[in-house]
Specification:
The protein is mostly beta strands. Helices cover 13% and strands 53% of the residues. It has seven helices and 20 strands. An eight-stranded antiparallel β-barrel has the order 1-6-7-9-10-12-13-20. A hairpin with a 2-residue loop joins strand 12 and strand 13. The chain is elongated.
Length: 390
């Protein structure tokens, strides 16, 4: 029995030495596209649309914006009836499809080769997402407020770091230099954000008195999300120390939004008659709004927390900090905490959206193989010489 155990230990030791359990440090990069079937939609922010000059303050308040799908559209029509219903008479509309995970990425990974066929690792992937854009032209639908031919342009992109625990299976014995493999990973976003840039160009705003431009930036952060990543590739090992690899990758991931914060909101105006200009920072409440807005009762008071920050929740109800269920607003804050009013000092709560981060891509890279045996013969010259003697 002792001899049998000794023999088994000897065989195991020889196998370990021959097959070379070792660590790998890898670095690679690649590019990804939205996916084989590009059907997902991207969310954006639409300012309040109204053709009533009395609504000018509501139009300028970002709390009244809506979260909608990105679309490219042109609109020609008018508001009708006592409920101010909009009727479109001509134009076009197309939904923008895409994924925030399309773009360039870099991966740094540490892995351990258990045997010639199985490896486990931890991959860190950083994404520089492509910019996704959309535009909406409002021809003659908001002539009294934003004015005819108002153009709303939105651009959005994502950056982020993910960690991916992985298992890789190789379909080749240790002695082969070319090794096909398949990899499966769990995708866990660690950090990152989605940025929105919104530009509103109104050449004849406020009853054709002012050339008005507005620029807003919104940063959306995510909460814990879980997805999957996989790869099908080939690894080439010219010498024991180095491996070169390339793979086709695929990711399935939808990221849950946590908050959206308005980080910039400026309004610039130029009087079409006198040429006088104004500049207002709506977040800080500094500068000056066009005179006609002031004449209509508009003020450049600093935006409240409710107007600046959206907090996304899974369920909205009558207790939520929103006007969706009958609560009123008092921007002075005098009614904060009182029944029937939203709390202007707290976040505006909305239903949680999900951002698409699925993709399909290509990656290439290089790995450094590390073990005592490899460091003794990193170029494989000793092993080659011994093989030639045989």
């Amino acid at each position: 029995m002792k001899k049998l155990n000794l023999l088994l230990l000897s065989v195991l030791a020889a196998a370990t030495y021959s097959y070379g359990q070792y660590f790998q440090l890898s670095v690679g990069g690649g590019y990804a596209w939205p996916g084989l079937t590009n059907t997902t939609t991207v969310k954006g922010f639409q300012p309040l649309l109204s053709n009533s000059i009395a609504d000018v303050n509501n139009v300028l308040d970002p709390a009244n914006a809506s979260v909608i799908d990105f679309v490219n559209s042109t609109s020609y029509g008018h508001f009708t009836g006592t409920d101010n219903t909009y009727s479109d008479t001509a134009g076009s509309k197309s939904t923008v499809h895409g994924s925030y995970a399309s773009g360039a990425n870099i991966t740094i990974a540490a892995s351990y080769r258990i045997n010639p066929y199985i490896s486990v690792g931890l991959n860190f992937n950083y994404l520089w997402g492509n910019t996704i854009s959309s535009s909406q032209l409002y021809g003659n639908s908001v002539t009294a407020t934003l004015g005819p031919n108002t153009m709303v342009t939105q651009k959005t992109h994502a950056t982020g770091l993910s960690v991916m625990p992985s298992v890789t299976a190789f379909a080749a014995p240790a002695r082969w230099k070319v090794k096909p493999y398949v990899r499966f990973s769990i995708n866990l976003p660690l950090a990152g954000s989605v940025e929105h840039d919104i530009h509103v160009e109104s050449p004849s705003a406020l009853l054709n008195t002012t050339h008005l431009t507005s620029d807003l930036k919104v940063k959306t952060e995510s909460q814990f999300s879980l997805g999957f990543n996989g790869g099908l590739g080939v690894m080439y090992q010219p010498i024991p120390l180095i491996s070169i690899w390339g793979e086709v990758t695929g990711t399935y991931l939808n990221v849950a939004a946590k908050t959206s914060t308005l980080t910039e909101y400026v309004i610039d105006g130029r009087n079409l008659t006198t040429g006088a200009t104004t500049h207002a920072d709506r977040i800080a409440g500094t500068g000056q709004l066009p005179g006609i807005i002031t004449a209509l009762g508009g003020t450049n008071a600093p935006l409240t927390q409710y107007s600046r920050v959206i907090e996304y929740v899974n369920e909205l109800n009558s207790e939520s900090n929103t006007t969706d269920y009958g609560k009123q607003r008092d921007k002075t804050g005098a009614h904060n905490g009182q029944a029937g009013y939203v709390d202007e000092s707290k976040n505006h709560q909305l239903q949680r959206p999900y951002a698409p981060f699925s993709n399909f891509g290509l990656s290439v890279g290089i790995s450094i193989n590390m073990s005592k045996k490899i460091f003794q013969d990193p170029l494989g010259k000793k092993a080659k010489a011994e093989a030639e003697k045989k």
